């Protein structure tokens, strides 16, 4: 009996030692350090803007999207030591480093509009010439593969790119009311939003031959209007997401070199696009939230 008690005590002692060893190992483990936004260090998981070109000078590090960097005493500032420290980020950034796993878009205007520049995951580069010291916001895209990009949804190709964003004209007068996406003349165009075709005009090639395809989604009470393409569906057709609706063309564009598909989101049931060229007033709301709510990144401008 005493032998059994002795054996039991030994086993309990071994068990206690094992538990203490595990506890010590857990206590000694060092958890992964989470990024600390706004501390002036560009850490993994952050998007960072720099005061100078070539990711130099003072840095401003962000963990999330910012629709307006602000001005005056309440603005987002460059934080770390170096040239530009304490200056507002708005209209003062020259380069960026994307240390997130998602696409990040920098915008010329507040509220996610105007000319854009794109930073793929892990990339660091100078801002495009028209955005250097002319930056007002950035948007960290939704998680996902390249197939989630809006331009991929329209062309089903990773070679497509956004050439002008909402209110994003850089050389033409007027307020751009949609998103221009280009691939190659004759490339198939697909619908990123479902609905019913409420207008189709084929147009002809050249600046005077604008084509229009308007697709109304009654559940969203939104119309997506496509310009310049050669439509392959007619009025009354029910369109599903991903359905082929035409091919890229230059109907209403002066030359084939400017061929693209203009994709415009409008409130309510509409049959035409809003005026853009030479028109100083925006008729449409900013479409960024609409596209992100549909699961699309609005990320890439390579043209």
Description of the structure:
The protein has 303 residues and is α+β, with helices and mostly antiparallel strands. Among the domains are: 47-140, Gamma-B Crystallin, domain 1 (Sandwich), CATH 2.60.20; 179-278 and 285-293, Glucose Permease (Domain IIA), CATH 2.70.70.10. The protein is built from 3 helices and 17 strands. It has helices at residues 2-28, 150-155, 288-293; strands spanning 47-52, 56-62, 95-98, 104-109, 113-119, 124-126, 137-140, 161-164, 179-182, 188-190, 195-201, 212-217, 222-227, 230-231, 238-239, 244-247, 261-267. Strands 8-9-17-13-12-11-15 form a 7-stranded antiparallel β-sheet. Strand 1 and strand 2 (56-62) form a beta hairpin. It is elongated. Mean pLDDT is 88; it is low at 1-32. Residues 175-270 form the M23ase beta-sheet core domain. InterPro entries: Cell_wall_metabolism_enzyme, Dup_hybrid_motif, M23ase_b-sheet_dom, TAT_signal. Residues 1-34 form the signal peptide.
Produce a short descriptive summary.
With 303 residues, this protein is an alpha+beta fold. Helix content is 13%, strand content 27%.
List the defining traits of the structure above.
alpha+beta, Gamma-B Crystallin, domain 1, Glucose Permease (Domain IIA), 7-stranded antiparallel beta sheet, 4-stranded antiparallel beta sheet, M23ase_b-sheet_dom, M23ase beta-sheet core domain-containing protein, TAT_signal, Dup_hybrid_motif, signal
């Amino acid at each position: 009996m005493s032998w059994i008690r002795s054996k039991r005590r030994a086993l309990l002692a071994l068990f206690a030692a094992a538990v203490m060893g595990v506890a010590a190992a857990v206590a000694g483990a060092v958890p992964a350090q989470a990024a600390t936004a706004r501390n002036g260090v560009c850490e993994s998981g952050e998007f960072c803007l720099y005061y100078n070109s070539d990711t130099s000078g003072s840095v401003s590090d962000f963990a999330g999207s910012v629709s307006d960097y602000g001005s005056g005493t309440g603005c987002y500032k460059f934080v770390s030591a170096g040239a530009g420290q304490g200056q507002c980020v708005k209209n003062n950034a020259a380069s960026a480093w994307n240390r997130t796993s998602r696409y990040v878009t920098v915008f010329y205007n507040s509220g996610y509009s105007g000319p854009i520049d794109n930073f793929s995951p892990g990339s660091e580069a100078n801002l495009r010439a028209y955005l250097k010291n002319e930056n007002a916001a950035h948007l960290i895209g939704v998680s996902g593969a390249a197939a989630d990009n809006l331009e991929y949804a329209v062309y089903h190709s990773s070679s497509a790119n956004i050439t002008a964003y909402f209110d994003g004209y850089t050389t033409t007068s007027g307020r751009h009311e949609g998103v221009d996406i280009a691939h190659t003349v004759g490339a198939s165009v697909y619908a990123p939003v479902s609905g019913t075709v409420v207008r189709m005009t084929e147009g002809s090639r050249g600046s005077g031959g604008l084509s229009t395809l308007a697709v109304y989604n009654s559940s969203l009470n939104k119309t997506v209007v496509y310009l310049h393409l050669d439509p392959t569906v007619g009025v009354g057709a029910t369109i599903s997401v991903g359905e082929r609706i035409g091919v890229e063309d230059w109907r209403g564009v002066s030359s084939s070199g400017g061929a693209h598909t203009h994709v415009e989101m409008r409130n309510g049931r509409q049959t035409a696009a809003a005026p853009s060229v030479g028109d100083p007033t925006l008729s449409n709301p900013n479409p960024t939230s609409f596209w992100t709510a549909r699961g699309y990144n609005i990320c890439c401008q390579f043209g």
